[in-house]
Known about the structure:
alpha/beta, 9 helices
Amino acid sequence: xxxxxxxxxxxxxxxxxxxxxxxxxxxxxxxxxxxxxxxxxxxxxxxxxxxxxxxxxxxxxxxxxxxxxxxxxxxxxxxxxxxxxxxxxxxxxxxxxxxxxxxxxxxxxxxxxxxxxxxxxxxxxxxxxxxxxxxxxxxxxxxxxxxxxxxxxxxxxxxxxxxxxxxxxxxxxxxxxxxxxxxxxxxxxxxxxxxxxxxxxxxxxxxxxxxxxxxxxxxxxxxxxxxxxxxxxxxxxxxxxxxxxxxxxxxxxxxxxxxxxxxxxxxxxxxxxxxxxxxxxxxxxxxxxxxxxxxxxxxxxxxxxxxxxxxxxxxxxxxxxxxxxxxxxxxxxxxxxxxxxxxxxxxxxxxxxxxxxxxxxxxxxxxxxxxxxxxxxxxxxxxxxxxxxxxxxxxxxxxxxxxxxx
Length: 406
């Protein structure tokens, strides 16, 4: 009997000890799970803080790059804005190696590809800044976990009483600047009517001798030139509504002709690059107050436009952040000049100048315009009449790049 009582007491002590051990184990497990959860929540908080700071820094760099056109100034702005943001209780530190400058280009699926430029100080085009940040630059390196840091040590943290972590964040900001040069054909055929018949002039000009018409200014409302004037007016009106305020230039081309008091220049820059939107259609009107003379030297018009976009006379207009475009219009065949406009377009594309073309009228060399656009990385449009020409200009103005970001 005594032995049975002793055994029962021993069993109770054993069970009590087992329950205490189990309770301790459960408490430790619960504390570990709680600590793990706290740390995970803290890591996500730090990541959110770092994301906001990285985004703000790279956006600041993009804005300052556009206003200053200086990589060094943009880099300093990113560092200053980053330092104003607290990440895990300390300012975000950006180094030069964390900031990359380059070009963002669109893909067919709507995304954009960032290409880093190793020496941005000598680049002709820079429209994007990428920041890749981490927390290793802060004092002590990385951020410290706040609870039971040893629990996560085996998951990749540093061994010891304090575990560090350093997320990596990447952000790209692209500056949206557009420099565009409209290049129009002012050869003699632009005074013809819209019947698409050679040497057919509108209204009272029809039936006169070719030399009389050649030396007469184009009809104010019924000529191809008049259609161009109206379409360009709509084009510049749509451009003026673009929130990024594109800079626009106007160039025109024909060939060199002198006939008594009348003459025609090969190619000319009629409106320099700037925001003078109303000046573009006004200049086309002014050009139409004189006879349109000469043949069609497409290469000459392209050269003037490329020179204005890449080497404007006013250095303040040379924006490395800009996407550069040429819109080339021609109503006939290339009948003058020895330069190859397709080769010129390909060379311009290497300098990030994109060329789109408009073949205006049934007599335009559609194949040549297509080849120029292909070489220049742009789009080839065909407009048989004024209505189609107006729609083409609306489309071009409305679809200029408006968002370039990651």
